[in-house]
Structure formats: structure tokens, C-alpha cells
Amino acid sequence: MEKVVETTDGRFHVRMSGEGDVTFVLDHGMMSCHHQWGWLSRRLAKIGRVFEYTRLGYGRSSRGRTKRLFVNQADELQRLLSFLEMSGPFVFVGHSLGAYIALEMSLRYEDETKLTVLLDPSHPDVDAHLPDWYERMQEIWNGFLYLLTHVRPIAWIVPDQIGARLFSELPLEERIPFWHALSRPSHWRGTLDEWRTVEENNALIDSKTSSVKTPVLVLSAGEWAGGLPEHWIKARLGEHIQEAHRSFAKSMPNGQFEVMEGLNHYTIAGFSDEGARSVSYAIERKLFFSKDESTSDE
């Protein structure tokens, strides 16, 4: 079931599917929306309930009314889950920047959280390996897309079937809705709102990790996918990012780390059926078959 709901915080685009004893709550990365989960949400719906939503500021959701700190976004998600009467036990899944929100939610629902899954997550040590010019280039590009969609909406110029080709890796029924979401001027304004809080969010996450008592699975992409060739940005960048993710897992009492070979930053989070199969298997293995595992370097 997919719908738009109005809450005291704003308008949220949400989708619910599946049945089972656990509820997977999926939090997308920066510049994206819930349609990114494509293949992965379909896999998870076979083993539990799945709740997907588009954060305030993106797609068909309205603009956030507070500073885009992940603690404020967790406030909004917590109220949204309550409004929709969503119940646990929960598995919070966060991709990229959404990982911060997933961790914060596991702190707030500690007794109801069975597992937290961080997919190629953001982290201060990851950003430390990215040159300032590369991050600045990304921000400028986002600003250009906002201007382009605002002055001359892309959706009016580019036919849906052509725009949908940008997302050919996703299930067919996700492609045009994703294109419509990304062609909205409000979507790129939301991205810029989140860019302005990156440094503050990075500083804040370090104060949280030692308090996370629930099991956490950190899955790091085995391949680079950052728009430019890896060696143009930094030698052995992918290895440095994986090491940052390994340290992220070790900073949490019940953290576990694993590299997902053959997957990149996007295919690890729903842009590939094969990738979704690998990720869902890793989640099932941790959720149903492992007991009291400590940090590992698989």
C-alpha cells in the first residue's frame, strides 16, 4: 500500500508491504527517495513487514520545517511511525546518510529493535578521505539541478520514458515514479538543506555510537561508484572507505562488519536484484541464525 499522509511535521510519501513478525524500516540516502529500495524492499517483504518512506524535503514529501540534523529527522520518523500505528519488533535499515537516522532510531526503540543495518553508511572517517574539491563539486552539482528544475522543470522537457531510463536497474514500476520525484524542484532544495548539515551531523554521530546496545550490521560496498574514477579522487579510496566502515562497526558494542563484494554504493541499496539477494541474505543470516555475535571482519 502506497499513500501520502499528512502529519504535524508535514506531508510524507510512504509505502507498506509484506507480512511477518518483524517490521523493516527503510531510510534512504541523500538525494534519493523511497523508490530507490526497488529490489531490496521486495526481498525483505518475503520475510517481514516493510515500511518505506521519503524523508521530508524529497520527492512528494514536503520540505522539513526544522534543521536537517538526523536527530530532528528521527523525531519526525518516530512521530510518523506512531501516527501510522507501526509496531515492532523493528529492523532499522539506513543507506548512506540514512544510516545516522537508523542508528538514532535504534537508541529510541532499544527494547523493540532486533537489528540495525547500515548500508555503505556515511561516517566522518569516510568524508575525511574525500577531497574538499570532490564534496564541493557534488554540492555545486546539486545546486545546479535545483536551479534547472526550478527555472525550467525537467519533467516538462524530458518525456517520462526517457527519464525512466536513468533508473533502468530498478524494477519497471519504480522507474517513472523515481524520475518524477527527482525532477521536482523541491527535491533538490531538500538535498541542499541536508548538505548544509553534513559537518554537524558527522560531529554528532560520534557521540552516539558507544550508546548503541542493539546488534548492528555494517555492510560496506566492495566497489566504488562516485561519478568519477576512483584513482582520480584518491589512490585506494575504496579500501580506505571500507576501513572507515570497519572502524564504525568496532565503535559499537555489538557491531559487525562485512564487505559486500561486487556491489557499489547504489546496488547495495536496491538498485540491483542480485545485490538485493546478497544483502537480504546477509540480513536474514544475522537476524535469524546468529546469536550474540561480536564485531567480526568477514
Summary of the model, kept short:
By secondary structure, the chain is of the alpha/beta class. It is 44% helix and 16% strand.
Please identify the top-level CATH class.
Alpha Beta
Helix-and-strand structural type: alpha/beta
Query: Unreliable stretches, pLDDT < 50, 5 or more residues?
Result: 292-298
Distance between the first and last residues' Cα: 37 Å
Topology:
Elements (H helix, E strand, L loop, with lengths): L1 E5 L4 E7 L5 E5 L10 H7 L4 E6 L15 H14 L6 E6 L2 H11 L4 E7 L4 H5 L3 H20 L2 H4 L2 H4 L8 H11 L2 H11 L2 H8 L10 E6 L8 H4 L3 H14 L4 E6 L12 H17 L9
Parallel strand pairs: 3-4, 3-5, 5-6, 6-7, 7-8
Antiparallel strand pairs: 1-2, 2-4
Helix pairs in contact: 1-13, 2-3, 5-9
